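ok new one. same drill as before - structure tokens go in, u give me an amino acid for every spot. 331 of them this time. try not to just spam alanines like last time pls lmao
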């Protein structure tokens, strides 16, 4: 069976019918390029359209295949070979489609399904002997760091990476200051101040910004120091009463601000010696008494006292010492 002879025959019959390659292709639901390949002997018509082709060209499949009509077995053999060829082509296409489908599914699973995170122990560059903990989504690579910033690359999806980072951050202590939530890791005394996932055509970049110590405490210390004019004693001395308030920061717990309040009369008799904690909200200092060393029961000493902060002075709002002084102003 000669493909070139078959092609010449198809071309001859087509031209006798006055059809263009495009017109014949439209009748057979194939392209004009397919018809051109038949006529050039590059390929043969599929067995599924041989009979239709023969009808359109007013001939028969024996003539198209250049086989004598009497040799019917040869025609059947050719037809069977074409069937096997088509079947094998279909199988190959199906295998290719299955492989492509598996690859696409694998990519989808890799990019969109959560695999969790690993805790990486990385060196904090400002403290050569200090290691900090970062929750890095699995399958991340190529760590970079610059001062307080650390970044990793990942081929996985942005949304799933963000969720895995949030899962790690949820294991840390939430700290709120400066109208912002930060994440404090007490085990290594480190605060994560920011995190992000930035997209790229090929990969995503995972980033952490960190600070040594309790960042909110550092912010509070700076803010309190500014409002109070320093962590120094606030004093009021008159002929009838002496008052000293000493604010300080606990060394073993930097997030707690402590204070001592000592009050004596003109005869140095103790009216109050108390210790407690304090906080500053807006323009007020709130002192919470937690322990008394001395306490004059003739005074109604409250559990907490509120001082208005004005020009770095403390002005007692509820003056329980009015017996001695009309207004308490600690300078």
């Amino acid at each position: 069976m000669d493909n070139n002879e078959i092609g010449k025959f198809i071309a001859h019959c087509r031209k006798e019918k006055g059809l263009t390659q495009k017109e014949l292709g439209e009748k057979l639901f194939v392209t004009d390029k397919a018809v051109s390949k038949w006529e050039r002997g590059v390929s043969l018509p599929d067995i599924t359209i041989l009979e239709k082709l023969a009808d359109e060209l007013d001939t028969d499949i024996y003539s198209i295949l250049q086989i004598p009509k009497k040799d019917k077995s040869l025609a059947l053999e050719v037809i069977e070979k074409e069937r096997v060829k088509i079947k094998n082509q279909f199988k190959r296409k199906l295998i290719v489609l299955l492989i492509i489908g598996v690859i696409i599914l694998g990519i989808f699973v890799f990019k969109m399904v959560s695999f969790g995170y690993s805790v990486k122990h990385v060196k904090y560059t400002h403290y050569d002997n200090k290691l900090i903990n970062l929750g890095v989504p699995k399958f991340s690579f190529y760590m970079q760091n610059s001062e307080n910033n650390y970044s990793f690359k990942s081929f996985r999806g942005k949304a799933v990476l963000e969720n895995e980072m949030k899962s790690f951050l949820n294991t840390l202590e939430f700290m709120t200051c400066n109208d912002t939530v930060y994440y404090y890791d007490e085990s290594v005394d480190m605060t994560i101040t920011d995190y992000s996932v930035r997209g790229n055509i090929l990969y995503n970049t995972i980033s952490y910004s960190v600070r040594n110590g309790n960042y909110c405490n550092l912010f509070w210390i700076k803010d309190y120091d500014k409002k109070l004019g320093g962590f120094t004693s606030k004093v009021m001395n008159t002929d009838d009463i002496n008052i000293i308030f000493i604010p300080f920061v606990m060394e073993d717990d930097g997030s707690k601000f402590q204070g001592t309040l000592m009050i004596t009369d003109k005869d140095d008799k103790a009216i109050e010696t108390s210790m407690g904690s304090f906080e500053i909200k807006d323009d007020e200092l709130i002192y919470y008494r937690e322990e008394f060393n001395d306490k004059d029961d003739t005074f109604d000493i409250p559990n907490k006292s509120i001082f208005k902060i004005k020009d770095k002075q403390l002005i007692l709002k509820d003056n329980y010492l009015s017996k001695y002084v009309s207004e308490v102003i600690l300078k």
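The chain has a mean pLDDT of 88. and btw The first helix runs from residue 3 to 16.
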